UniProtKB/TrEMBL annotation:
Protein's name according to its UniProt entry: FGD2 protein
Compartments in which it is found: Cytoplasm, Cytoskeleton
Record GO terms (molecular function): guanyl-nucleotide exchange factor activity; zinc ion binding
Organism: Todus mexicanus
Xref: Gene3D superfamilies: Pleckstrin-homology domain (PH domain)/Phosphotyrosine-binding domain (PTB), Zinc/RING finger domain, C3HC4 (zinc finger)
One GO process term, biological-process aspect: cytoskeleton organization
Keyword match Cytoplasm: yes
One GO cellular component term noted in the UniProt record for this chain: cytoplasm
Domain PH positions: 117-226
Keyword ATP-binding: no
CDD domains membership: FYVE_FGD1_2_4 (cd15741), PH2_FGD1-4 (cd13236)
Domain FYVE-type positions: 43-103
Highest taxon above the source species: Eukaryota
């Protein structure tokens, strides 16, 4: 029974176990675009356009939803109309990618040919193939405030910690190379679960939501800092 309980616990996506986390709805298959109404990605799960990756703000870059795929996109990336079968073939606002697929019309893009940057990895995509991911807070240098976001160590880039503002963003806002860092445990202060990454005077201080989450992050970061890129041996044994 213990083995079954462990297996069931590990089989759950970790982000659903983090308190208060909201996940995105399942994406439609390509052949379903326009034929089925999509579940919209919630506004509070993204801080940037899911197509062009430009950050949203209240004045010049408002949020819109593509009626075909449900992505949250900016006005520029959703300035297209296409007939949607699920809506009686009425014209609806869609993103550029869905417009091209649904209409067959090609559109010249000013960003075409731009190479994908190192931070342009979708949070949902890398979280699904991650060594570890969850929400954390990264404190500023004086320890009084900081950035709360979605932190991921991808399986295909296990020596780097990617930091997203939200769990469905399509671009990380920063990354931290983990190789060579030391992981330090800090005494609990003000009911906060603190730990650090330190190397040559560079120190990052993190706050986890629980002591268990803190220990798991410390282990994952320590393994990456030591250059261990394969999955945890203990976890492999549990799965067997």
């Amino acid at each position: 029974q213990d083995a079954i309980d462990k297996k069931e616990k590990r089989s759950e996506t970790f982000k659903t176990a983090v308190h208060g986390l909201e996940t995105a709805p399942p994406a439609l298959k390509t052949e379903e675009l326009g034929r089925r109404a999509p579940q919209w990605v919630r506004d509070n799960l993204v801080t940037m356009c899911m197509r062009c990756k430009e950050p949203f703000n209240a004045i010049v870059r408002r949020r819109h939803h593509c009626r075909a795929c449900g992505y949250v996109v900016c006005a520029r990336c959703s300035d297209y109309k296409a007939e949607l079968q699920y809506d009686g073939n009425h014209l609806n606002r869609v993103c550029l990618e869905c417009y091209v697929f649904l209409t067959g019309h090609m559109v010249l893009k000013d960003r075409e040919g731009k190479h994908k940057g190192i931070l342009e990895k979708g949070a949902a995509e890398v979280s699904g193939r991650s060594l570890f991911c969850s929400s954390l807070q990264l404190l500023d240098k004086n320890g009084k405030g900081g950035t709360r976001g979605w932190f991921v160590i991808p399986q295909d880039d296990p020596l780097v910690l990617y930091i997203y503002a939200a769990p469905q963003d399509v671009r990380a806002h920063t990354s931290i190379p983990l190789l060579g860092y030391q992981v330090r445990d800090l005494a609990q202060g003000d009911s906060r679960h603190l730990f650090q990454l330190a190397q040559s005077g560079q120190v990052y201080t993190f706050v986890a939501d629980s002591e268990e989450l803190k220990r798991r992050w410390m282990r994952a970061m320590a393994r990456s800092a030591a250059g261990i890129t394969h999955p945890d041996e203990e976890e492999e044994e549990e799965e067997e």
